[in-house]
Specification:
single chain, 166 residues, alpha+beta, 7-stranded mixed sheet
C-alpha cells in the first residue's frame, strides 16, 4: 500500500476523531463514542515543542489519515531523557504493518534526533497483538496498573511498558 508518514496538521482532526470513536479502535485506547471533534482540534492546536505527532496518510487522489503516533517528551528538567508514546490505527488498516512503521519512525526520532533514553507506554493487558508489536521493538513489561480504565463496562488493567537506549 502506498502511504506517507508526515507531521500532523489541524485538518487531520476529523479523521483522527473518527478513528478515536470507531469500533475496533476505541476499545484499545481511551476514546469514547461521544467524543467531539473540538477535543481533537484543541489537542492539535495545543501541541508544544515537546510533542511530536506523526500521521500515516493514504497517498491517493483523496488523501486520508488512517494512523497516528505520538511522542511526548517529559517537560521536567530532571526527566527530559524520557517520553511517552501512543499509537492508533484505523480498524480497516490494522495488521498491515502501519503501526510498526509509525512506531519505527517516532522511535528513530527519539533515538537519533532527540537522544531520549527511556520511552514508555501503557497497553491493556488483553491487547496481545499490540503487546507483541511493542516487544518486537524492544519494549518490556515493567508492571501492571490495576483498574487503570473502564473498558466495555468493566475496570481493566494496563501493562506499563518501556524501552531503553543508553
Amino acid at each position: 500500500m502506498d502511504y506517507l508518514i508526515r507531521p500532523i496538521r489541524l485538518e487531520d482532526a476529523e479523521a483522527i476523531n473518527e478513528m478515536r470513536r470507531m469500533d475496533g479502535v476505541r476499545e484499545t485506547i481511551l476514546g469514547i463514542k461521544s467524543e467531539r471533534i473540538n477535543k481533537t482540534e484543541d489537542f492539535i492546536k495545543g501541541l508544544g515543542a515537546n510533542d511530536h505527532i506523526l500521521v500515516a496518510e493514504v497517498n491517493k487522489v483523496e488523501k486520508k489519515v488512517f494512523g497516528v503516533v505520538g511522542l511526548h517528551i517529559n517537560a521536567s528538567l530532571r526527566a527530559r531523557h524520557s517520553a511517552s508514546v501512543w499509537i492508533m490505527v484505523h480498524k480497516d488498516y490494522q495488521g498491515m504493518g502501519i503501526g510498526k512503521a509509525l512506531l519505527k519512525e517516532v522511535l528513530d526520532l527519539a533515538d537519533n534526533w532527540l537522544k531520549l533514553v527511556r520511552v514508555e507506554l501503557s497497553v491493556f493487558v488483553d491487547n496481545e497483538r499490540a503487546i507483541n508489536l511493542y516487544k518486537s521493538l524492544g519494549f518490556q513489561i515493567e508492571g501492571t496498573k490495576k483498574y487503570a480504565a473502564i473498558k466495555n463496562g468493566e475496570y481493566a488493567d494496563e501493562f506499563i511498558m518501556a524501552r531503553y537506549k543508553i
